[in-house]
Every structure is written in structure tokens, then in C-alpha cells.
């Protein structure tokens, strides 16, 4: 009953975050004469977060209006099943530690190696032991890191730390 409209509440929160983020990006100073400045990506991300939060609010409103939220045949059953399970904060703590290590060693080791290892380990942490696919996670990590590096280097003309390479 307390969190009957949790989708609406989280959607409103995310909408406020996106508005603040968009307004903050308007104060970025453009140092070049190109049309794409430093505020471009934050504004795109803020707009996407805003659109997704509006979708979450609409979906939450529909659930509350139709009465499916809190219904035993709907999400209420999932919540009662989750109450019997023990909550583990281990993946969250490991993720924060992994992020801190990633930020600390990236200037030394470099973007390509550090990001590939980080993505692989993050996927391993967040997947269940039964769903871990070493080869797939490795391929995704290498391909995604290569695409990100190429985009930053050749499209945005932003140098990333090279480190050991």
C-alpha cells in the first residue's frame, strides 16, 4: 500500500533529474566553433531520460488505474515471492569497488585494456552463476570497447588514455 504507485514516483524523480541535468548542461561553455559542443551529449542523455521517465509515469498510471499494481495475480505475487528470498548486497558492493579500481588504474593501464576487463568483470558480477557465458561476455567486452574507442578517437576527436599501449 505504501508503494502502490512506485512507478509514478520513480518516473517523476527521473523526470526531475533529467530536467536538472538538461538545465545544468546549458551552462557549459563552448570552446570551439563547431555546432556540436560539450553540452550535446548531456542534453541528448537528459532528453532520453526524460522520455523514458514519462513512459514510466504513463505505465505506472495505467497500472494504478487498472488496479493491476498490488493485485495478487500481478506484481503483488512477485513482491511476496521476493520477500522470502534473502537480499544480497554483494554485487552492489563489488560493482562500486570495481568502478573505483577502474577509475584509479585507467590512466596507468589505458582505456582499451581497462575498459575491456571492467566490462567483462561487471557482466560476471551482475549475472547469476548459472547464466555466465565467458565467451559471449569476452566478445561483447572487446567489441563494445573497440567501438567506443573508435567513436571517441575518430568521430568526437577526443583522446582517451593509452596507458601501456
Q: What does this protein structure show overall?
A:
- With 165 residues, the protein is mainly alpha-helical.
- The chain folds into 2 domains: 6-84; 90-155, no CATH class.
- 70% of the residues lie in helices and 0% in strands.
- It is built from 6 helices and no strands.
- The longest helix has 27 residues, at 40-66.
- The chain is flat.
Summarize this structure briefly:
This protein is an all-alpha fold and 165 residues long. It has helices spanning 6-25, 40-66, 75-84, 90-109, 111-126, 134-155. α1 (6-25) packs antiparallel against α2, α4 (90-109) runs antiparallel to α5 and α5 packs antiparallel against α6.
Question: Secondary structure elements and their pairing?
Answer:
Layout: H1 6-25, H2 40-66, H3 75-84, H4 90-109, H5 111-126, H6 134-155
Helix pairs in contact: 1-2, 4-5, 5-6
Q: Quaternary status of these chains?
A: single chain
How large a portion of the residues is in β-strands, by DSSP E? under 5%
Number of helices: 6
The helical percent reads 55-70%
Q: How many distinct folded domains?
A: 2
Largest sheet: none
CA radius of gyration: 21 Å
Question: Span from first to last CA?
Answer: 56 Å
Q: Rough shape?
A: flat
- Overall pLDDT level: 83
Query: From the helix content, strand content and strand pairing, which structural class follows?
Result: mainly alpha
Number of strands: 0
Secondary-structure element order, N to C: HHHHHH
Point out poorly predicted stretches: none
Task: Please describe the structure with a list of short key phrases separated by commas or semicolons.
165 residues, mainly alpha, 2 domains, 6 helices, 70% helix, flat
Amino acid at each position: 500500500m505504501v508503494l502502490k504507485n512506485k512507478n509514478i514516483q520513480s518516473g517523476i524523480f527521473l523526470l526531475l533529474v533529467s530536467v536538472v541535468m538538461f538545465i545544468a548542461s546549458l551552462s557549459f561553455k563552448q570552446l570551439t566553433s563547431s555546432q556540436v559542443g560539450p553540452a550535446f551529449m548531456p542534453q541528448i542523455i537528459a532528453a532520453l531520460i526524460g522520455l523514458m521517465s514519462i513512459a514510466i509515469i504513463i505505465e505506472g498510471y495505467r497500472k494504478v488505474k487498472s488496479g493491476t499494481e498490488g493485485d495478487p495475480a500481478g506484481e503483488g505475487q512477485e513482491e511476496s515471492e521476493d520477500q522470502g528470498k534473502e537480499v544480497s548486497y554483494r554485487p552492489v558492493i563489488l560493482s562500486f569497488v570495481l568502478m573505483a579500481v577502474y577509475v584509479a588504474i585507467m590512466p596507468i593501464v589505458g582505456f582499451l585494456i581497462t575498459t575491456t576487463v571492467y566490462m567483462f568483470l561487471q557482466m560476471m558480477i551482475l549475472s547469476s552463476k548459472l547464466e555466465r557465458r565467458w565467451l559471449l561476455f569476452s566478445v561483447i567486452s572487446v567489441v563494445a570497447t573497440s567501438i567506443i574507442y573508435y567513436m571517441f578517437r575518430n568521430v568526437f576527436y577526443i583522446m582517451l588514455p593509452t596507458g601501456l599501449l
